[in-house]
Amino acid sequence: MDYFLQQLINGLTLGSIYGLIAIGYTMVYGIIGMVNFAHGDVFMVSAFIALILFLILTQILGIAAIGFALLIVLVLGMALTSLWGWVIERLAYRPLRGSFRLAPLISAIGMSIFLSNFVQLMQGPNNKSLEPILTNVLVIPMGAGTVTLAEKQLLIMVVTAALLAILWYVVQRTPLGRAQRACEQDRQMAALLGVDVNRTVALTFIMGAALASVAGLLWITYYGVVSFSDGFVPGIKAFTAAVLGGIGSLPGAVLGGLLIGLIETFWSAYFSIDYKDVAAFSILAIVLIFMPSGLLGRPDVEKV
Prior knowledge:
There is one protein chain. With 304 residues, the chain is mainly α. The chain is built from 11 helices and 4 strands; from the N terminus they run ααααβββααααβααα. It has a two-stranded antiparallel sheet. Strands 2-3 form a two-stranded antiparallel sheet. A hairpin with a 2-residue loop joins β2 and β3. α1 crosses α9, α2 packs parallel to α4 and α9 crosses α10.
């Protein structure tokens, strides 16, 4: 039982990071009906930004309070990464919004390749590491064994839950959220009713990038290492999580992320780690066969 609970904690931690990235996918898809395949690399860029900012604050400026340094990194990282999200929307999506559906997809893939190669040129091909931080561990007795809950694991799960609640409130209870939901239903009608569609879409990209920034900070805090290639695999898994939970649904994105994290962790713990990705994508295929819209997704309604 203690081993099972330990893997449960590990899976929820990993799934929380996937869920934060998945929200960015599902928000953009919900507004413009396109998948932002550069979002995974935005997450990777945000992890590098967090690493560089943290090293500047602690080693150059001499800030000794780790919590205060992380708070500054969080705010500055969200601002810088949001700028990347805005640039991607202006360069890769807005000019192609009225073209055939494959054009923005190809443009997003091109932006993904650009970001990956740009970071490789600027930071080099080798992994960049960070000394372990937030190393406190809570040991919980469990029968004949123990379960450990690291401080950073608790931080990741709490931050994910808090951001999901805040984002749900923004979408459901604020004028921006009403504009986003109007654009999701019908952008042309929303524009006729006075909604600034360009501004709403741009803010959606900015919000998704900001959440990816938080995920990048949590990633470097948890694993302590990042590479220029780290945008592809987490990005694909986060997109899988968004589809599994029901793309277009915010709770579904987080639910899908948690499920992907749990599947990977439990498969690696009880079976072969080499096939954990196969297990995750197999579960996705099985769910979509019986629930094509995902776990919490809504079926598309064809307007005639």
